[in-house]
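We modelled each protein-ligand pair independently. The example shown here corresponds to the adenosine-5'-triphosphate entry; the chain sequence is given first, followed by the ligand as SMILES.
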Amino acid sequence: MAQLILNHLSKDFGTGRAAVSDVSLTVREGGFLALLGPSGCGKTTVLRMVAGFEQPTDGSIILGERTLADGSGALPPEKRNMAMVFQSYALWPHMTVAQNVGYPLKVRGVTGAAWETRVRDALSVVRLEEFAARRPADLSGGQRQRVALARCLVTSPDVVLLDEPLANLDRHLKAAMEETFREFHARSGATMIYVTHDQGEAMALATDIAVMSEGRLIQVASPQEIYARPEGRIVGGLVGQGGILDLALPDQGPRLVPWPAIEAAFRQTAGPSRPVLVRPEHVVADPQGIMLEVRSCVFEGERFALSLRTAGGQSLKAYSATATATGSLQPFVIRQGWLV
Ligand SMILES: Nc1ncnc2c1ncn2[C@@H]1O[C@H](COP(=O)(O)OP(=O)(O)OP(=O)(O)O)[C@@H](O)[C@H]1O
């Protein structure tokens, strides 16, 4: 196991716009990095360059002491000791679970007792020991995905690459599989890179999130950090819930904006404005607050989600323990905001 370094990595397919531009980041040994961003931002291209399926146009990829790719050449995928899990599980239908999991070992010439032991160990990581003799057709979607995970683990890869592995699953199965992935990461100790456009998934799974937009890396930080202190509108809008208000705030001042400054900004009608991200948990009903229109109130099980609108027509979100009449004007305090 070793840390993975992407150094000024770029990829231009010759389409007029680079798919990946100057991406530099370090995935620490045993880390779980989520590459997050909208469709087409370059996530999969980064993953494919790390795997060795694409050659960088510029920059380098280093794993521990080894250079995997740079200006002078690239190691082929099979020499990188990595494993990739795809959205489609890509299992062989005519093979049993054990044969599917053990296939990469067979290719490497591992047979007999060594084969049996390593397949059993890999199946135990994903808790599928009992299913060794079944065929993929006789498994649920989640179990098939776990077979695919066991198969990538069986060769003890330094790095596991996952390309939207949960995209085809329903919500319940997704939640259960997130748990499996967390456990898989903890038990395998592998360094993992996980491509997703689902911020909830990234927050739930990763130790670090790298947000990309239009081929560029915008921010890399822990889920907590990126939620509390996002860099710019794109990250603020992509990670977590909330609304971005344009408020008349002074040029100087802390990025964490307290309620008195927000309240003062609401009274200010002229002057340049600055974008402030407001999380729903910081918008609370309070008679001392400013009047906001309740645009909608949706029951989410454990709470109600409110869509609110300011007098100036800007949108906000809030949570409430009780139902609130749609169309009514109610006082709310915005406890804090974050300048993005
Ligand atoms: N082989 C290729 N040839 C030309 N352009 C490509 C190729 N592969 C990807 N691209 C382009 O590069 C950009 C980034 O694509 P990429 O698949 O990396 O995005 P992504 O963030 O993974 O998107 P998605 O979430 O939709 O999979 C896109 O504009 C895409 O059209």
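The first strand starts at residue 4 and ends at 11.
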